[in-house]
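Lab notebook page, bench 4
Experiment: in silico fold of construct C2
Operator: M.H.
Input chain length: 361 residues
Purpose: comparison with the prior construct
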Amino acid sequence: MTVDSPATGKTALHNVRVFDGQGLTEPTTVVIDGAVIGTDASGAETIDGDGAILLPGLIDAHVHLHGTQSLDQLAAHGVTTALDMTTVPPERLVALRNQLGTTDIRSAGTPIIGASGMHVRIPGLAEHSVIHGPEQAEAMVAERAAAGSDYIKLILEAPGQGGPDEASAKAVVAAAHAKDLRVVAHAASLGAYTLALDAGVDIITHIPSDGQLPSEDVRRMAVERRVAAPTLVMMQGIATALGRLGFADSLASVATLHAAGVPILAGSDANSEQGVPYQPPHGDSLHRELELLVTAGLTPAEAVRAATTLPAQYFGLPDRGTIAPGLRADLVLVDGDPLADIRATRTIARVWCGGIPHVRS
């Protein structure tokens, strides 16, 4: 791979095969013009890609951030957008936004949890997170919207297990939708998954490990146009750490959802949280998630879409997820062919975040 000396603020990537959402193009040129993808290569610094594959920047649909080091770890692994599911307090979130040359974030900020579920034990979370009844929903959603939350995170448990009750969950969804905010529901058990459907959430994150999803829930996911972010890497990690059976059920449920036409998003649940049974590493774990999605029945191309075009679509990010003129220049150049072997997403040669080359430490 050769690089000619720069003449302008533009970069032209020659001889690259582009993932277009379905397959790979013939070798072509992609122009980085400032923060976006351009069309005019005149006067640009040129990079000869030698036939390497150019992917849209990867999007991890479920992370937990722990300072700017999390962003650098994500970017180094080609994750140019991270959808954060919990960051408290709001001031901590503000400090992580709009960091040039590294991973861009969207965040739920402070989640909404029940009074006695397992999440109340996470340090610093319970004080501003617990909902005690549906009458609190509107104010809690308004508070998160004012603090800059891009969507609402609702942590559900099976009925009677300490999470928000059905009335409270429905009230949160109604209040969020009234503000045009999506609701992402944590649902790691069969009972919680059904509750999430009954509450009307938009995206359900995690996949149960206490049995396979019943056919009625799968049907509802498809017919009601819900979206799944199963975090298989986390579910496998928890099963291994706690010596539990059930991961085979998780894989089977994802296979059934996919066969039913339910959109599947790639999310790792990467975190560094004390007390959590498993801590997927930021960045690296998204590549493992893609491998597990293929194991569950997605094609490699479908797995790449699960980390590019689909999260951009379902989280309302129209400026990314695809390589096209005018969109953010979030790009990952890889030496292998992920459509032949999904593990090739790991063979990263270069990463650009908003047009800025990320320097891998």
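Observations: The CA atoms of residues 29 and 141 lie 45 Å apart. Confidence is low (pLDDT under 50) at residues 1-7.
Next step: discuss at group meeting.
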